[in-house]
Write a structure and sequence with these properties.
The chain has about 90 residues and is α+β, with helices and mostly antiparallel strands. It folds into two domains: about 1-40; about 45-90, Irregular (HU Protein, Chain A). The chain contains three helices and five strands; from the N terminus they run H-H-E-E-E-E-E-H. A three-stranded antiparallel β-sheet has the order 1-2-5. A two-stranded antiparallel sheet has the order 3-4. The chain is elongated and about 55 Å long.
Length: about 90
């Protein structure tokens, strides 16, 4: 399911217009992104949690040439599924 399918499903199941559903989904996603950018953890009970992991710089290798490459430090989102979601998927 992609974002537009989520918007369409929300509109159909909640009797909202597509514009209203788009606003709800965009507000939700933007709020999550803002919280993660500020260093907060986002937890949706029964679904899972999102947090940012920070990685230091390191020396890597270009797989094609074997040349040494310096990889810059980075911040990446990390998702951990909640207990209820895991149980739902495995039953």
């Amino acid at each position: 399911m992609n974002k537009s399918e989520l918007i369409k499903t929300l509109a159909e199941q909640s009797n909202l217009s597509l514009d209203e559903s788009t606003m709800v989904v965009n507000t939700f996603v933007d709020s999550m992104k803002k919280a993660l950018l500020e260093g907060d953890r986002v937890e949706i009970r029964g679904f899972g949690s999102f947090k940012i992991k920070e990685y230091e710089s390191y020396a890597g290798r270009n797989p094609r040439t074997g040349a040494r490459v310096e990889v810059q430090p980075k911040r990446l989102p990390f998702f951990r599924a909640g207990k209820e979601l895991k149980e739902f998927l495995n039953n």
